[in-house]
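User: I've been trying to design a sequence by hand for this structure and keep getting stuck. Would you show me what you'd pick, starting by listing the structure so we're on the same page?

Assistant: Good idea, let's start from the same input. This is the structure you sent:
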């Protein structure tokens, strides 16, 4: 099975490499732009890798474009490794929907992350490129130093435009580097944004480091221009674990994606 030529700018922007012509061997070499300020790999990197390999597998199997409907991801090790490889398999499919499972391994074949996703299949849709010159007013506030120094945060282009104890507003200007093969914002971008705003919220709440253990994402509407905004809301505040929700909306307050995350609180014992 051969990989199709990718037109996804986000694929190249992160640094993925199909390497082998075999679809099930999507590869990623570690780079500084993929790290958080604490030196760990951003969960959005693995979310993107799983989304790509599952979506590409489904596209080849069904000879159609695969749109992400839902992702459920678990992260086992965010410590940087030399290389990563993603493998996937299809679990179930019908005329419109396909469910797939994917795993990410390091160079020593240790399991790093695992996920399953539901995708809707259909023909390629052509979207006209629209210029959006309208500026969006933002509240200028000082951003925590650790987020200003977060390599993945700055590489994607996130901006914290409001930072209060119970209200974090994250903004992302959409650019061509963040689009998929269908010229829409890549599903990995949404997963990264949800995980990021959840992490910021929890760090601001607990005042200690946190690490993502699980992320479930639901996708509601495609978008390819303007700005995205994300807010988080705590669901359960535990001593060692926290459950948190987050939503992404566009400039017209249209719901784009929603996700629930489970984080480990790294308290000093």
């Amino acid at each position: 099975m051969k990989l199709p030529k990718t037109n996804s700018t986000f694929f190249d922007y992160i640094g993925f490499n199909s390497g082998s012509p075999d679809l099930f061997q999507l590869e990623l070499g570690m780079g500084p732009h993929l790290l958080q300020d604490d030196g760990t790999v951003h969960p959005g990197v693995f979310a993107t890798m799983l989304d790509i390999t599952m979506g590409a597998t489904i596209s080849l199997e069904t000879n159609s474009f695969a749109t992400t409907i839902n992702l459920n991801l678990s992260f086992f090790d965010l410590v940087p490794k030399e290389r990563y490889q993603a493998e996937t398999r299809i679990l179930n499919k019908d005329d419109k929907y396909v469910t797939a499972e994917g795993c990410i391994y390091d160079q020593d074949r240790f399991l790093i992350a695992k996920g399953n996703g539901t995708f809707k299949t259909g023909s390629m849709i052509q979207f006209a490129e629209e210029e959006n010159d309208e500026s969006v007013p933002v509240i200028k506030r000082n951003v925590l130093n650790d987020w200003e120094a977060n390599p993945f945060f700055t590489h994607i282009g996130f901006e914290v435009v409001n930072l209060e104890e119970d209200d974090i507003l994250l903004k992302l200007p959409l650019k061509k580097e963040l689009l998929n093969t269908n010229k829409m914002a890549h599903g990995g971008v949404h997963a990264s944004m949800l995980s990021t705003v959840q992490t910021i919220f929890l760090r601001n709440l607990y005042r200690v480091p946190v690490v993502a253990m699980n992320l479930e994402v639901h996708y509601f509407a495609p978008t390819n221009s303007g700005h995205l905004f994300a807010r988080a809301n705590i669901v359960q505040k535990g001593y060692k674990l926290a459950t948190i929700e987050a939503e992404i909306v566009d400039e017209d307050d249209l719901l784009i994606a929603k996700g629930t995350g489970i984080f480990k609180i790294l308290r000093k014992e």
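That's my pick for every position. To get oriented when you compare it with your attempt: Residues 1-7, 19-24, 125-143 have pLDDT under 50 and may be disordered. The longest helix spans residues 43-62.
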